[in-house]
Recover the amino acids of this structure.
């Protein structure tokens, strides 16, 4: 059975609506012909030259990423630089590219929901509720009270990382946890207003830490990649369940751009 790219976009829109994306976002079709036939799809986190090579090697017709390839306008396509080579490589190999970014952040089985499950939180609900169980972030309870120091260790173990950054007293009692995959510095006040003892997110700057300390809100910065990558497998399964006639592959080349030493 032939499946067209536009049909895949419609299926995705059914369980991960593109209308949920933020105004500044660019989820959806990045490159490709909506009428092209799709038999095999590679699911990845970012679109990089390594992911392009993997897509070509696996003879896929579509790559679906979390982060959009295009955020701003392009003034030129120069195949002498990385972005130009990737655009050229997609077109020459008839590979389409689609992104599911803030729409995948917001759905009830999306980025932050997966993060909450990985952290062992129970009774989770959206941190920023947009209705229908959609919204940014989650807030929930730990299975039993703990301390900030112990919970930081839980975060490291759950996400498979060696280092996190924390703000707050190590002996602080933790039972209510807010979590947001990716850059979540805009939502300190919401986390505190809902009673969070600690807020787990990523990409916090020095003065974000100062602001949290002044508010009396404990925070844990666990890195952008590691707070979001957990969604890749369940999202692939959601795609595969919706389109059993298409083969979906999980990229083996997904990695953090930063190395912790």
């Amino acid at each position: 059975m032939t499946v067209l790219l536009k049909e895949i976009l419609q299926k995705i829109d059914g369980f991960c609506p593109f209308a949920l994306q933020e105004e500044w976002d660019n989820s959806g079709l990045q490159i490709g012909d909506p009428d092209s036939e799709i038999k095999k799809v590679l699911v990845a986190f970012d679109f990089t030259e390594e992911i392009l090579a993997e897509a070509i090697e696996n003879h896929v017709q579509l790559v679906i990423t979390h982060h959009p390839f295009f955020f701003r306008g392009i003034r030129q396509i120069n195949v002498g630089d990385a972005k130009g080579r990737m655009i050229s490589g997609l077109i020459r190999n008839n590979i389409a590219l689609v992104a599911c970014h803030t729409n995948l952040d917001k759905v009830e089985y999306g980025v932050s929901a997966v993060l909450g499950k990985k952290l062992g939180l129970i009774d989770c609900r959206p941190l920023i509720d947009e209705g229908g169980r959609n919204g940014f972030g989650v807030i929930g309870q730990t299975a039993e009270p703990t301390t900030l120091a112990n919970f930081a260790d839980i975060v490291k173990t759950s996400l498979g990382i060696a280092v996190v950054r924390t703000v707050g007293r190590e002996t602080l009692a933790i039972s209510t946890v807010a979590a947001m995959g990716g850059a979540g510095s805009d939502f300190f006040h919401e986390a505190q207003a809902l009673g969070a003892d600690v807020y787990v997110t990523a990409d916090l700057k020095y003065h974000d830490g100062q602001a949290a300390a002044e508010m009396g809100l404990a925070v844990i910065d666990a890195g952008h990649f590691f707070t979001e990558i957990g969604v890749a497998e369940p999202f692939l399964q959601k795609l595969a369940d919706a389109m059993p006639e298409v083969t979906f592959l999980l990229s083996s080349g997904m990695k953090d751009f930063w190395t912790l030493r």
Observations:
- The CA atoms of residues 118 and 158 lie 6 Å apart.
